[in-house]
Design brief:
The protein is built from 9 helices and 5 strands; from the N terminus they run βαβαααβαβαααβα. Strands 2-3-1-4-5 form a 5-stranded parallel β-sheet, sandwiched between helices. It is about 55% helix and about 10% strand.
Length: about 180
């Protein structure tokens, strides 16, 4: 299997933690879209938001998505919370046959994990506003995903993802 596995979900849903565990188990390469953007620009995500604004950041995300999806190697890609809210990014991953997995974690759990972070959306919004963003994004994640994962046990989540990958995988030679 050589297609990428793309993890999406709200900030604090565990995309990085699960992604690293999954990549290690599958012997894939783990990559985070935010890390790609920071390496490319030499700036942190908060700096990019502060200096250039969210629209510029979303364009940088899209460029990172195009670059990662085109690698055509076995990667586990942790996306930023806003990546899958833009159809253009979903379309890129779909065009490359990547599997999109939504980590559907309750808002209160995500909020507990992110409330003290320096993330631009957290820093600039109240808990109530973040809750509204969470619900708006959740519908978009559901529309984008091939597999939805719930639960809080990291090992169980990784096992469930692997089961879903193996049950939906068809070798290239059998697709046509």
């Amino acid at each position: 299997m050589s297609r990428n596995i793309v993890l999406c979900g709200f900030m604090g849903s565990g995309k990085t933690t699960i992604g690293k565990m999954l990549a290690q188990h599958l012997l894939y390469t783990f990559v985070d879209t935010d890390d790609v953007i920071e390496a490319t620009t030499g700036m942190t995500v908060p700096q990019i938001f502060e200096i250039h604004g969210e629209e510029h950041y979303r364009d940088l995300e899209h460029n990172a998505v195009k670059e990662l999806a085109s690698r055509k190697k076995s990667h586990v890609i942790a996306t930023g919370g806003g990546v899958m809210t833009l159809q253009r990014n979903v379309d890129v991953f779909r065009a490359h046959g990547d599997k999109i997995i939504f980590l559907d974690i309750p808002f209160e759990v995500c909020y507990k994990r992110i409330k003290d972070s320096d993330r631009p959306l957290v820093r600039n919004n109240t808990k109530e506003a973040l809750h509204e963003i969470y619900h708006a994004r959740r519908d978009l994640y559901l529309a984008a995903c091939d597999q939805r994962i719930t639960g809080l046990d990291s090992q169980a989540i990784v096992r469930e993802i692997i089961q879903g990958i193996h049950s939906s995988y068809t070798p290239e030679s059998e697709r046509y």
